[in-house]
Fold these 3 entries.
Entry 1:
Amino acid sequence: MDIKTLQDALHQAPFRPFNLHADGRIVRVQHPEQVFITPDKTTVIVAGMEGGLAILDLDHISSLSMAPKRGGKTAA
């Protein structure tokens, strides 16, 4: 994965949650403030919403998948 794809996902407005797929794991990003990218742009650290950290090498992130858009109700 390239850093621009990740940064674009983090800065989209409005923000949409997404999943990072790396080394057979799926890491959910529910808020952009959960993610820290090291200054050398080689490591991504994701803080879990319930605690814990996922430390991912950017080269090992195989894909990013967006969460489906929520369907809004229309007034009847």
Entry 2:
Amino acid sequence: MSLRNIIKQLLNVKRFPILLGKIKTRLGDAINPRDNKKNLNWLAEQKQDFAEYAKSLDAELWDESLAYAKQLEEHANDVLSKLDVTLGGGGFYPLIYFVTRYMKPNTIVETGVAAGYSSHAFLSALEKNQNGELFSSDFPYFRLENPERYIGILVPESLKSRWNLFIDGDAKNLPEITKRIEQVDLFHYDSDKRYAGRQQAMDMLRPKLAANAVVIMDDINDNSFFMELCLSSQQPFRIFEFGGKYIGMLGDIHSAN
């Protein structure tokens, strides 16, 4: 991307203050690092295999989730190969699809969309369930020209009827989302990986979390936030390893059925 286009994006009147806020908070977190050794040891002790867990709940649904994941990968390869930019990769979308199909939630909130792997998984599962809506929060890659067009690029028009997309950053998006929903049944966090970013999002959504809500967080190996959240909660939790990283799930998906 040219310097001219970078400056153009930075001077976007609507998003420039948001971008400055993100930079400021990231610098603040860097100044106050947290010791992560205890967290990593705890995650290693708690981890289990999600495939085995899923099969113990519904082996047929897990097979469906794997078949869906293969279709998504083929679709993603086709769409992304035609772009002249490189976007972020996908998360553990078989888990996302399985949990959504199994729980059958009415309202899902996710942070971090990027190309839209997770959004596609949520929306595909909701469509299969024939019920529910997805509220997604993201912020455009300012380094790209016309960055908004890349957000959720993997999501086809046929899945968008259940999708509510907000692209002004979590700090602005999440309060707006909470105004529009009664409660959150499933929350997937995959945006600002800082401790402070996770805490801010949870603080904003906590009043809307259903009594039997499930919270899923990616990359919980980055800091101790999820560990502390689990240890301070009376809810069951599970830790899964995927691609050399850890994913956490707080809450019992049985109770959300």
Entry 3:
Amino acid sequence: MKSIDQFSEIFLYRFPVDMRKYRNGLCAIVTTEMGKNSFGRDLFVFTNRRRNIIRFIYWDDSGFAVWTKALEKQKYQWPKSLFAGNSVAIASNLLALLLQGMNITSHKKLDYEKVF
């Protein structure tokens, strides 16, 4: 798989996807529901209802690459609060945190006026 920082944009799909879907089914979601071009330089990320599987799809100049990561005991912390529509674009560093099992929406910027 390409490094995640090589993609123009990374899009997470909001809704759970049946993981029996593969290239054709995922590309249909990308074009019809997300309104994106599946042949671009973007990475599209999907999860299942149980949130223990993540599937990635992207165009790799000669065909589609589809990758899957499954967790045995934990669940991915899908960032539901970030979504305004069917999908959301996130930075590559946030995807890396998500893949490590981190909740990428719980951290809030801290503003301090004084040290003590």
